[in-house]
Amino acid sequence: FHNLGDAVGGDARFIETGWALFFGQRDETAARANVEMNRELGVDIHTLAPSELSELVPQANLEGIVLGVYEPASGYADPVATTYAYANRAREFGAEIVTECAVTELLTQGGRVVGVNTERGAIEADAVVVATGPWVNQLASPLGESLPISPIRVQMVHLRRPPSLESLNTNIIDYTTGAYFRVDAGYGTLVGGEDFDDLTEVVNPDGFGLNADHDTITRFWDRAKLRFPGFSAATQRGGYGSLYDMTPDGNPILDSSSNVEGLYWAVGFSGHGFKLSPVVGRMVAEFVMHGESADHPIRDFRAGRFAEGDLLEADHPYEGRRHQ
Questions:
Q1: C-alpha–C-alpha distance, residues 246 and 310, integer Å
Q2: Residue environment code for 22-38, b if the CB has 16+ CB neighbours within 10 A, otherwise e
Q3: Can you give the CATH number for the domain in which 299 is found?
Q4: Which pLDDT score, from 0 to 100, does residue 244 have?
Q5: Pairing of strands 67-71, 19-23
Q6: Tell me, what DSSP letter sits at residue 234?
Q7: Is residue 273 part of a domain?
Q8: Cα(131)–Cα(269) distance, rounded to whole angstroms?
Q9: Inside any domain, residue 105
Q10: 190: which of 36, 182, 243, 323 fits an S-S bond (Cβ 3.0–4.6 Å)?
């Protein structure tokens, strides 16, 4: 997202904050191994002793922290601005984008896809990529397919940082408390949960709570105060609920349909789809055009891996996390 303007055009509104990860003793070995693996891949990442971590985030209570990991070039982008950038570039190449027009049915004939039905009528197509996230099985089930995806409600809490934390401008994941912190405009911080228990609420994707629950606000705020005591003086600005399309291994399904020729799935991103979107777009496009992805082993993300018992697993997993 640093160079989206050069690669795609437009502005992702990327804000470089750096990214710090806090680890306790149970995950120290895995963290060191993951840092080494990422460095071999060219990622700018390094470990920090607690004393160095204290210099980076002096507001933190580092009790129980034995290791820090830091990515200085990390940050966050605006998903709306990024989507518009891709859409505008696609139009320049001749794509027609139709909005506010829900797909209601996948149309097939003789075992292959021939288009989609929408709220405004049918659209013919000889290839269809379904990227509908938690709603995928509403389209897949009538075709006799069921993808192992659960619509999981996730919640975020919005805190206004007090004066003592106004300089806290680094994004953080604390693997000891299961909290993550994403800085926001106007001295705001979004606090979310990384524990397994934070990703278990299966809901109807057409009807779920859009506001954060009171007990979740309390729980996440308590986690924030444990690591950053200054959050005791924060102002609570509510929160929101949204959806993950979770797979059993927390990784996406990028595959063709087992029943219908010309139909493809790009779903199950389990909370990290936006971050993966640039490379996934290329992988899926190559798969549709050529039956394979040139630079990445797309077969690893096949839908059948779950029935085969061949789930994707991290080489060096952290404890207590549903997705790695």
A1: 17
A2: bbbeebeebbeebbeee
A3: 3.50.50.60
A4: 98
A5: antiparallel
A6: P
A7: yes
A8: 10
A9: yes
A10: 182
How many helices and strands (H and E) does the chain possess? 7, 16
Residues 6+ apart with CB under 8 A from 299: none
Reported as a single tens digit per residue, the pLDDT across 184-233 is 988 999 999 988 889 999 999 999 999 999 999 999 999 999 999 999 99
Q: Which amino acid is at 96?
A: E
- For residue 284, count CB atoms less than 10 angstroms from its CB and return exposed for 0-12, middle for 13-18, buried for 19 or more: buried
92 occurs within a structural domain: no
Span 134-151, pLDDT tens digits: 999 999 999 999 999 999
Q: Please give the tally of structural domains in the chain.
A: 1
Looking at residue 44, its pLDDT comes to 98
The reported pLDDT for the residue numbered 324 is 56
Q: Is the entire prediction scored with pTM above 0.85?
A: yes
Question: What pLDDT was estimated at residue 323?
Answer: 57
Low-confidence ranges of the chain (pLDDT < 70): 320-324
Is 172 within 8 Å of 20 (Cβ atoms)? yes
CA pair distance 115, 105, nearest whole angstrom: 9
CB atoms within 10 A of CB 167: 12
Which residue segment(s) compose the domain that 259 sits in?
A: 98-149+249-305
The CA distance from 217 to 202, in Å, is 19
From start to end of the chain, where are the E strands? 15-16, 19-23, 46-48, 67-71, 75-76, 103-109, 112-118, 121-124, 128-130, 150-160, 171-174, 179-184, 188-193, 235-246, 253-256, 263-267
Residue 194 lies in a domain: no
| Half-sphere exposure for 139 (CA within 13 Å, toward CB) | 27
pLDDT for 212: 97
Token pair of 85 as six digits: 């950038």
